[in-house]
Design brief:
With about 130 residues, the chain is an all-alpha fold. It has helices at about 5-15, 20-30, 30-35, 45-75, 80-105, 105-130.
Length: about 130
Amino acid sequence: MTTASQALVATAILAVALIAPYSIAMLRHWGIRAVLGNRDKPAPLPKWAIRSIRAHRNMLENLAPFATIVLAAQVAGVSSEHTVWGVTVFFWARVAHAVTYIAGIPYLRTAAFAVSLVAMFDLARLAASAGG
């Protein structure tokens, strides 16, 4: 498995793992009965829990484009130290984004998000340049 594929799998696992903070908050604040119920009128959760669901949603919004770019680069045969660096930077920037988002650190969160976008666009540029 290539480093890019490993980074893609790690990013998908991160997306799934980001369900945990919100789930733990629901269990802790609502109890198992309410969590397993329909949640038609849920009690409010702490702000960090609400931020965790937004961090998860943001991760899902970025996972599809990242996966598409990584897969397109692999189909095009693009693999270099530059692409390895790009997928690694993207992954760790997304980890930083999730942590700072849940912790409520706005400027670092935004910086981590920007770094992940730059890495993703750079990967897209590399993948697109392979075609011609």
